């Protein structure tokens, strides 16, 4: 059998071959064409500089021991049973897998349901794109988990999905099990449609004050809804019209009950304060402020409220509300006791989050191991999954990266990326696969030419064109930095700013 | 194939003149005998069950007898089918037609549900008949089709009908068969669309509507018990979904890619729906997951064209497109191998006839002809709940047949005729027009017994949209159809005015301004020849 | 007045201002650091001496004598580098991306050959400060819009206004070659037919403009030589004459492989041989030809995604290395985001991580751009006679964890503490901390009075 069947079949044969199966990494650009890599019973990575992002700190010449997908131990000269897979990582660095707290990389269709100001009924989990090449490219940058968020078009957006980058798995196998549900809020220019063009001037709200009221109104409606249902449950009757379930208000009730984490896209100090006050009025805590580029101005207030802050390292000047953004934002908030992370909000930047962490060293002298936490354990804490991921500590998932050098060095490459103790990225395999792809391309081109000659695919026979499937990824990955369609426009084409 | 009954056209015409006027209204009730015997054919009774040479007897629209030793009954019209293969008429499990646009857009009827993408209460019955679409399906060997409404996330209910001429009532097999859905946004905000404009919005709307449908019955029942409370809204759209929400009525989802199928399966699981999907050609990409959904599939076979090659070693040639082109024809046999119920559809092809090109490719990759036949007959019959009446050539079933010269599963099968409900529809092979037929033709019809009748035919219009009239015996009748195929002009018209109880057909070979050919009528065959004596002023040459 | 005399005039004007200004004709010597001239090997314990706006000496401590009265700055353990030269930038032409008012990056119309970038250069742009604080000292500011975009200028990122900040103008004429393939992107709204039509129109327009310019040149020269009646000056064609004469380089902006190949074919047909290609990573697929035809390349950004799903994940990162190994001269630019021109060295660093030798990477954002832009006599390396535009860092400036400590542009030290973003940082760092331990946020359910 040839073509698309080869890889899964080969993988299956290899798996069937027994315990010494190679740790096949799925390097194909078609997600479905990659089998799930095997999970060694015992794996040890030796002689590396290990950045645990945990209480053990940074260890030199240390080993990482993994059993069946979980970290068993971190330390020097660890003993392992025979038959363990050993990786010699002398001269290399090992870090926890990077967690991107703000991503839209793997979403089928629109990132925004931009028609209404409140769309809490829509769910990213319904449209997770397991086929997105961004998953593989981010693995190649050391990322192992991402928080997929709704866009920032609405004051109250949709529900999030936290996934692990298990390249090749179908959507339902990507979810990070046990991650508490979350939802996206957005404040400022985006939900008030400031940059949407001349036709976008009528949807309420058009001011920051209106954004507050739009949110507040929904909170009040949710309290009414909850009261209605509580009363009904006490006394349901067949001759009383029951209340109607409303998916939108269901989600808001969960927020007010503290069961759904609010991730609020925000920039200006005033709107940051507004939302925290509003949350306190209704008795919950904002889980994270996203972007929060003026967070440094109200760092103490954020620390007191207890919200996490997930920011850019140095992006600014793309909208008026980020005019006061400074690259010391992360460091300053961190200095004042805020739980800080760096995020990407971009499939391009997501591959370099290790280097984004380095910016906290450059701007603010955050110690290197603390800076790395901005993209590892801190992200896990903000998402309330720090019991499972984010640091190399016994009992946690074996999500880790082997780097060619310091993760904070611009010259380092990610060489291997492991999730759940399975190797999902291996640069050496990737390089080999390129030859296979070139050979495949040549073979297929020859086939096309042969078919055209024999007329079986000529125009006369009329091969009908299939309706192009929408998840067939774009010829051009249209997101680059934060200027969409920048690659071939030679300029700036910001269609709809989602930051 | 030629009928062997004889009568002279002119003799009939003479009698017809006399009784024609009297019988004019009675002519509407004239029904030719409906007993036919197709003799000496190879009969594919069902997938894997072949009679090398036999006879099929049709009586009043049903199969009366089929077998090797069957004798034609004495009242049967005999059709010589030697050298031909008879298959069960193919069943099209999915065709979709846009809901007719309102004549006054401002006064569009208010649909049942408040969202513009939801039309669950629409019923295709009144809009299902489309002679042009039926003809195209018949040309591909289909005799039955499901017709579903298009447009929207929840689209309304489909009908199943026979592909005969005439109105819906005569052809309807099942009304309100299934609810149809497509979980995709309808139009973007900037194109005038409303909520939802995103895929996740479409999912959310569907889920909310399913919840509402479940709630609706309870609410109405409670109100009926006790009207002394605020009246819940009456929503026909939700009423129409009651059976679906209860897991009883079938709901068919259109999918566009393999993740779509998995997404639909999730919704089916969540709401415990009785569902089927219209597939997408990508099932092979996640075959195990698709298998696990257990969903019956109506599978389009619209394979992609080969991608343009920029240059042999060009690193920017689209490898994705190459792969998909190469893999697509494997999809049908691989999906069947999972054990899921799979019917084929011509949906998404430019026209139904093109199905055979795809089938030939798929058969080249491992699909068997029997599997193909089952996917076009017995499986769709089962999906449409019509197994007792359609899908095989067995006594008691509806007389739906496809008659083919040679084998059906080649890339250009020669389908000669189909029988729908026991009525014969000859299929003319059409070629691109090589001549212009417009103008006035003075012709002479020569009947079998030597009579000569002058006939004038007027043709006008553009090729592909020709129309005209036929005049003879001081009567003028419009042509029912006029088509140019190659160098032949084929016309047909109702022969009642000329004393014939049915359609008269003529095929004229045109060279320059001369024409000669032949024709058939219920009363017998004839030859015809003549020339073009006038061209219309505004002739639009073909 | 034609362009050449215009630029001479400008230079005279600038010189007059510079001469008139009371420049501290101070001699400065940086000592004790590792000096990285880029034009030559690194100098441990090196010395750089500059007088006024010029470097006068670079060398080992033992080899350089420091003039008496010089201000000696001892920086042991540090590093001295030439300031970065951003080879393609919008700096000075834009402020906030979403605000149209201060955006002067794209003019309308197809023939903007007469547009000059430098006249709209906002010396006080908010975006310049952060770039300078990141060690960027010069930017090649390029106009956009249309097919012929106009002429560019190399701007010194410190001064009073564009007249004294223009290092040299015109650097070259810019041409944005029409796209040949419709991008298959959700943002791209034109249909295939619309795109095909527009492409034909654009290619025709390009040809028409050039043909008209040739005809204009012939008529103009004939008029000037009194062989024919003088014609009216049309700046849009007038400013193309130096390109037609081969006196001014033509910068072709082309990104997709067939677009690049077609542009090179077209330039050859039109006998335009002084070319620079401003391109994206697809240039690597045309590397051999670019090397053969000796066309230098400005790679507009390295920190970008591959255009095609099946391309290797590092297709963009590795492009500079592929070009370099094929023998192409490569400069690296910041990818079009003027607000983060300070990240220019990290584009070069990523190229180094994926195959470009480290020293070539450093050169690609310093001396190589200067060479390609024709200003290597003035800037791009630490050499006597060049402008004293340099910075002091505590390590390799291509590493993010390195700090840029001090920056000089043309001999003037930049007060980095006055940089606007830095000021905001210091101000809020100095915000008094809350006195007592803060009460925790109210528990859920406790509503605050409004």
Word description of this protein:
The complex is a heterotrimer of chains A (499), B (542) and C (450). Chain A has helices at residues 6-16, 133-139, 208-234, 247-256, 269-281, 299-305, 329-335, 353-362, 368-373, 377-382, 427-453, 486-489, and strands at 42-51, 58-67, 70-75, 85-88, 93-96, 98-103, 143-148, 156-159, 161-164, 182-186, 261-266, 288-291, 308-311, 340-342, 400-403, 414-419, 422-426. In chain A, strands 1, 2, 3, 4, 5, 15, 16 and 17 form an eight-stranded mixed beta sheet that branches. A six-stranded mixed beta sheet of chain A has the order 8-10-11-12-13-14. A three-stranded mixed beta sheet of chain A has the order 6-7-9. Chain A is globular, with a radius of gyration of 24 Å. In chain A, helix 3 (208-234) crosses helix 4 (247-256). In chain A, 27% of the residues lie in helices and 18% in strands. Chain B folds into two domains: 91-310 and 317-421, Metal-dependent hydrolases (TIM Barrel, Alpha-Beta Barrel); 439-534, Quinohemoprotein amine dehydrogenase alpha subunit, domain 2 (Lipocalin, Beta Barrel). In chain B, the strands form four sheets. Chain B has a nine-stranded antiparallel beta sheet, with no helix packed on it. In chain B, strands 1, 2, 3, 4, 5, 16, 17 and 18 form an eight-stranded mixed beta sheet that branches. Chain B has a six-stranded mixed beta sheet with strand order 8-11-12-13-14-15. Residues 1-27 of chain B have low confidence and may be disordered. With 450 residues, chain C is α/β, with parallel strands linked by helices. Chain C has a domain at 84-375 and 417-428: Alpha-Beta Barrel (TIM Barrel), CATH 3.20.20. In chain C, strands 1, 2, 3, 4, 5, 16, 17 and 18 form an eight-stranded mixed beta sheet that branches. Chain C has a six-stranded mixed beta sheet with strand order 8-11-12-13-14-15. In chain C, strands 6-7-9-10 form a four-stranded mixed beta sheet. In chain C, strand 6 (84-89), helix 2 (128-133) and strand 7 form a beta-alpha-beta unit. The longest helix of chain C is centred in the middle third of the chain and has 33 residues, at 192-224. The model of chain C is unreliable at 442-450 (pLDDT under 50). At the A-C interface, helix 2, helix 5, helix 6, helix 8 and helix 11 of A face helix 10 and helix 13 of C.
